[in-house]
């Protein structure tokens, strides 16, 4: 009688989880497309054409025209993010109870499919001096002359709201829809009004998620570029930091300086993200789902 063939050792026998190996392609993708470029840019920023190791950073912060771009960008990104959060919460509260929720959600997220450049082109035609809005208001005698809504701060602001709201709304709707309706029903049974139910039940449950949504929306708005160029005044009030980096790279051909500006941009973003995530610990620390299901 012959002995059975020896069993080949499996990955589990070697202490390797086969499911974990499925993460390797995604991890490699992240390293090649995100980690490596970031580290390369970081090292490049410390190799200026002139000056010492920190020459690029000293050059940036010694020029008010350059470091002023941080404030100009924050002046756009923060109000846009706050407004999108403020709009998405009440709209999501109403949409979750609607019968045709999918249809309305599709309409609200439509700007995502259009893209930033196409939205900017549309706003130029709609909000420009000879656009539909100004012509309609003048036709009905509501204006004597066109109002300026493009090539300034407001043109970029409106564009960022339109392109950023769908993303914020989808995240907010998913959080609010995950709250167990029984919690609000119990509060209503005890006599709590709609405002009280929102303040004491819904808001504490969604604040941790809103903090993450705020961070993602802020990073997206802070990196604005096409809207600032097409609808703003790149040499003036909408000279955002990403535009300064693009000028350094593709007009001055100083890639080291452009990398330093990009690193400063990343530090500002990480700083605000860290601050918001720290502050969210002051609120409710339980699960954001509210125990639904």
UniProtKB/TrEMBL annotation:
<feature type="transmembrane region" description="Helical">
    <location>
        <begin position="66"/>
        <end position="91"/>
    </location>
</feature>
<keyword id="KW-0472">Membrane</keyword>
<dbReference type="InterPro" id="IPR000515">
    <property type="entry name" value="MetI-like"/>
</dbReference>
<keyword id="KW-0813">Transport</keyword>
<feature type="transmembrane region" description="Helical">
    <location>
        <begin position="21"/>
        <end position="46"/>
    </location>
</feature>
<feature type="domain" description="ABC transmembrane type-1">
    <location>
        <begin position="70"/>
        <end position="276"/>
    </location>
</feature>
<feature type="transmembrane region" description="Helical">
    <location>
        <begin position="260"/>
        <end position="283"/>
    </location>
</feature>
<feature type="transmembrane region" description="Helical">
    <location>
        <begin position="153"/>
        <end position="173"/>
    </location>
</feature>
<keyword id="KW-1133">Transmembrane helix</keyword>
<dbReference type="GO" id="GO:0055085">
    <property type="term" value="P:transmembrane transport"/>
</dbReference>
<keyword id="KW-0812">Transmembrane</keyword>
<dbReference type="InterPro" id="IPR035906">
    <property type="entry name" value="MetI-like_sf"/>
</dbReference>
<comment type="similarity">
    <text>Belongs to the binding-protein-dependent transport system permease family. CysTW subfamily.</text>
</comment>
<keyword id="KW-1003">Cell membrane</keyword>
<protein>
    <recommendedName>
        <fullName>ABC transmembrane type-1 domain-containing protein</fullName>
    </recommendedName>
</protein>
<feature type="transmembrane region" description="Helical">
    <location>
        <begin position="103"/>
        <end position="127"/>
    </location>
</feature>
<dbReference type="Pfam" id="PF00528">
    <property type="entry name" value="BPD_transp_1"/>
</dbReference>
<dbReference type="GO" id="GO:0005886">
    <property type="term" value="C:plasma membrane"/>
</dbReference>
<feature type="transmembrane region" description="Helical">
    <location>
        <begin position="201"/>
        <end position="225"/>
    </location>
</feature>
